[in-house]
Design a protein that fits this description.
about 70 residues; alpha+beta; globular
Length: about 70
């Protein structure tokens, strides 16, 4: 899977579960990823833009924790 596919699939599989940025990095990018967890924020912003004006309704930010994909 490409990264563009892996992140949305991971979010959907964990729908309604609050996921920390570090957990998303470990599960999507891998344990050996060297970098900052803000890469998650960049990709979430990209996904929201692809989902259109309602993107924020589907992927909600949980301040200080991470993200949750919702119905």
């Amino acid at each position: 899977l490409s990264l563009h596919d892996a992140l949305p699939i991971y979010l959907v599989r964990n729908k309604n579960i609050v996921l920390s940025r570090s957990r998303i990095v470990e599960e999507v990018w891998g344990y050996d990823y060297i970098g900052d967890t803000n890469i998650v924020d960049v990709y979430i912003r990209y996904l929201r833009s692809k989902l259109g004006p309602n993107g924020r309704n589907y992927i909600r930010t949980v301040r200080g924790v991470g993200y949750v994909a919702e119905d």
